[in-house]
Write a structure and sequence with these properties.
Oligomer: single chain
Distance between the termini: 89 Å
Length: 389
Amino acid sequence: MDAAFSLLVVNFVIAQIFVLVFGVVAFKGQSRRSGLGFAVAFAVASLSALCEALIPITGYVRFFAIGAFVTMFGGFCLLARSITRHYGLCIADGVFVLLFAFGVFADFMIYDLPRGTVVQSVAYQTPFFLMMALSAAAVYLSSRRSAADMTLFSMLSLSAAYFPLKAYVAVAVGAGATAGGYLASKFALVSQGLGAVLIVATGLAMVGVFVKEAIEDAVARSDIDPLSGIFNRRGFARRVAPHLDRVSATSAGALILADIDHFKRINDNFGHHAGDIVIQTFARVLRDAAPTDAEVARIGGEEFAIYIPAIDGELARECACNIRGAMSAVSLGQFCNNETITASFGVASVLGGDTLERAMQRADTALYAAKAAGRDQVQLAGGPQALAS
C-alpha cells in the first residue's frame, strides 16, 4: 500500500507540473485556448489521486471512490475536448457533457458489483478508452504529420490501448475486493506506475506539439515584413521555392518586380510617415489586384515582387498593367498633397530549370528599362514593347 500511495503522490506532482507548463503556454504562448484547456484538464484529473489517497484514511469510501472516477474521467473529457479543438475536429460541447454524464452514471451502476469481474472492469475502463481513442483520432484525422504530431498520436493510442489492458489485468490478477483494498493490491502498483509513465509521455508529447508550433510561428513572423504586412525577401524565397520545383517547360510561371516611382521625393517632401503610408497602400493594392495564388512580397525599400504560378509572360504583363492601373486610381491626398503615386514594373517568364535569382535578374533588367523609358509603365523581359501611361 505504501508503494501505491507513493505513486499516487508522484502522479499528483507530475500532473501539477504539467498544469504549470500548460498554464505558461496559455498566458505566454500562441495557443492560449488549447494551453488553458490542457492545464484545466490535468488539474481536474490530478484530483483523482487525492481522492484515491483519502479512501483508506477516511471512512467515506464510496464518496472518494466515485470522486476518483469523476475527477479522472472529467479530466479526460476536458483533455479530449481540447485536443479535438486544437486539431480542428469540431465536436459540440454537449457531446462531451453527455459522454461525461454517461460515464459517471455507469460508475454509479457498477460500484456495488464485485471488483475484478469482467462486467465491472470493462464498464469502468471503457469510458477512458473512448476519450483517448477520440483524442488519437482527432490528431490522425487532422492530416498533420510532423514528428511532434505523430509522437502525440502514438502516445494517445498507447494510452487508449492501456485501458482495455487494465481491464484484462484486473480480471486476471485481481484489483482488490473493495475500493479500499485497491491500494493494497499489486494491480494498484502496476496501474499507478504505468499511469505515471503514460502521463509523462503524453504530457511531453503535447508540450512538443506546442514547441513545434511556436517555432513555426516564429519562422512565419520572421518571414513577414512588419511595415507592409506581406512577405519579406526571405519569406518570398521560401514561398516561391516549392513552385519553382514544379515548374516545367510546359507549365510556366512569371515574376513581376515593381518599384514605386520617385519614392525618395515622397519622403523628402512629405515625410517618412507619408512614405510608410505609400508602402502600406501599395502592398494592399498588390494583394488585392494580384491573383489569389500569387506570392507577394516587399523585397526592398520601395521594391516589391509578385510570383504567379502557371502563367505566361503576356498574361503576367496584363496582370501588372491591372495593378498599375489600380494604384494610379488610389487617392492619397491627405498624406501627399494630391500627388499621384505611380510605379514601374518589370515582368519575366519563369521556365523549367530557372532559379529565382536568374528570374529576378531578368525582371530587374525589364524594370530598369521601364524606368529609363519614363516610369509608370510595364516592361516585359525579352520583349520590345512597353505599356506607357
